[in-house]
Structure formats: C-alpha cells, structure tokens
Amino acid sequence: MLESLSHIALVVKDPRRTATLFHDLFSARPIEREDDEGHLETFVRLGGVWIVLVGAPVQRAPTGDHVAFRATPEILEATAAKLQTMGREFIRARANRALYFFDYDDHVFELDVEDLDEVLGGQRANAHEAP
Questions:
Q1: pTM of the shown model
Q2: Could you list the residue range(s) of the whole structural domain that residue 19 is in?
C-alpha cells in the first residue's frame, strides 16, 4: 500500500528563479544541495510536500495537468494580490473558490478552498473502483 506523497519533481529552465517565485508567493525557503552524482538540486516545501526543481533546457506546452493545494480563502486572495502585483497570469474558477497560476515553465498550480473529502462525502476510492 502507498503512503503519503513523497515529492513532486518539476523540470524547469531556471530552478532558482522558480524557487524565488514560490518564496515570494508563499515564503517557501529554497534548499539547494548537490546529489551523489554532482547534480545541483533545488527543493521547496509547499503545503507539506517537497517540490524538487530540476534544471534542464526544456520547453513545455501548457496543459490541464496541475498540482492543487488546499488553501483558505484568505490565502487564495493574498496570492491573487501578489500575482497581480508581480504581473503574473492567473485564473479564478469555481465562483472564486479556486485560483490557477503558472510558473515560468508553464506548470500549472491550483489553490482550492474546497475539501475534496467533504465534496466526495468522505468516500475513499478502492482499487476496484478506479477505471
């Protein structure tokens, strides 16, 4: 059986720039280290989940794939204000209960004020229920 989410790795052109974005929005403290093979790794912790920013010259098209974090309405509004001040694109959705924004490499992040456990009635998906 799986346990909790360990980390999410995102390939980005400039890990420091992306880490700075998360610091400016959420006060996330970036941590840099060199792995055993000599590769520089950049980590930030958002919502209790480690995000590993891996540097590579990549170009990605925007898609609907995204990483969603539960947030309070106050955090959602504060983030929207920061994004607006920074001139960063964002989208409000679901009667302003969700906010989507993009990093510099077109990864999409969502802040969601709804609790999926409540929305889904506390149901837990069983392996045989998945498509």
A1: 0.86
A2: 7-129
